[in-house]
């Protein structure tokens, strides 16, 4: 086999997602906090509802408008 093909098999693919951190969302029906990764199905663990609200950041964000 070609050595260039063998060396490519050990390299990480550009399509693999490394160090994905789960994001916290709040269920729109029951208010339970859920954590999802990018490929997870969006469904509440408690009630099965599919509408979520993203949690607010602890620190405020400021934008400069011109």
TrEMBL record:
User: What family does this belong to?
Assistant: Belongs to the archaeal Rpo12/eukaryotic RPC10 RNA polymerase subunit family.
Q: Which compartment or compartments is the protein found in?
A: Nucleus
Q: GO terms for molecular function, please?
A: DNA binding; DNA-directed RNA polymerase activity; zinc ion binding
| Record-linked SMART domains | RPOLCX
Q: For this UniProt entry, what's an example GO CC term?
A: RNA polymerase III complex
Do you know which Pfam families this protein is assigned to?
Zn_ribbon_RPAB4 (PF03604)
Species name: Blepharisma stoltei
GO annotation (BP), single: DNA-templated transcription
Protein name in UniProt:
DNA-directed RNA polymerases I, II, and III subunit RPABC4
Is Nucleus among the key words of this record? yes
Key words, A-Z:
Metal-binding, Nucleus, Zinc
InterPro entries the UniProt entry points to: RNAP_P/RPABC4 (IPR006591), RPABC4 (IPR039747), RPABC4/Spt4 (IPR029040)
